[in-house]
Amino acid sequence: MTKGKCLLLHIPKLNILEDGASSSINFIAMGIYSLCHQLVINGFDAEVLHLSVEKYLDKSFSAAKYVKDNNIKFIALSLHWHPQSYDVIEIAKSIKKENPDVYISLGGFTASFFAKEILEKYTYIDAIIKGEGEIPIAELAKEVFAGKTDLSGIPNLCWRNGKDIIMNKKNYVASDEDLDKFNFVGFDYLKHFDSYFKTGYMLNLCKAGELTGSSTIHGVCIGRGCYGNCSWCGGGFKNVEKITGRNRISRRSAKTIVEDMKILKQKFNVKNFHFAFDPTPFNQEKQIELFNYLSEHFDEKLNITFECFGLPQKDFIKTFKDSCAANSVLLISPEFADENLRKKHKTFYYSNQELEDILGYMNELRVMCDLSFADIPNLTDEQRNASVEYGEYLTDKYPDSVNGYSMGKIILEPGSKWFDEPDLCGGCPERKCFEDFYNDNRSIELSFDALELEKEIK
Question: Fewest Cβ atoms nearer than 10 Å: which of 50, 164, 174, 421?
Answer without folding.
Answer: 164
